[in-house]
Specification:
The chain has helices at 33-49, 76-87, and strands at 2-11, 61-68, 98-106, 114-122. The protein is α+β, with helices and mostly antiparallel strands and 123 residues long. It has one domain: Holliday junction resolvase RusA (60s Ribosomal Protein L30, Chain: A), CATH 3.30.1330. Helix 1 (33-49) packs across helix 2. The longest helix is centred in the middle third of the chain and has 17 residues, at 33-49. The protein is globular and about 45 Å long. 23% of the residues are buried. The model has no long low-confidence stretch (mean pLDDT 89).
Length: 123
């Protein structure tokens, strides 16, 4: 089902699952600093992995997120949402383009903790 790999990269830490936004009595909803730091790290590694002259993808995509050294703290769907949201505007125009998504949680030792992210163009 998948086509050519557009971008593949590794974030050298565990993901932070996408939480519900916090809603103050006055002001706009916001996400925690911990989650925003994670998003920033995903964006940093994605930018490093993009080929020179890369343009935002506008086609249907497959997103695969593999978490090594996964803990039982986060739900797989919130992990996928966090990565998908972070890559919007960095690798692809809109996260609605992700038509096929996979989150794989692999148990393992702490020294192997990392998050591998692959974005592929669907044929």
């Amino acid at each position: 089902m998948s086509g050519e790999t557009a971008v593949r990269f590794t974030v050298p830490r565990l993901p932070v699952p996408c939480p519900r936004p916090r809603v103050p009595r006055i002001g706009k909803p916001y996400y925690s600093d911990r989650y925003n730091d994670w998003r920033g790290e995903v964006i940093l590694w994605a930018n490093r992995a993009r080929p020179r002259g890369f343009s935002l993808l506008t086609c249907d995509l497959q997103l695969t997120v593999t978490v090594y050294g996964a803990s039982r703290r986060g739900d797989w769907d919130n992990i996928g949402k966090g990565v998908s949201d972070a890559l919007q505007g960095v690798l692809y125009a809109d996260d609605k383009q992700v038509r096929d998504g996979h989150v794989i949680l692999v148990d393992g030792p702490k020294r192997e903790r990392r998050t591998e992210i692959v974005v592929e163009v669907l044929a």
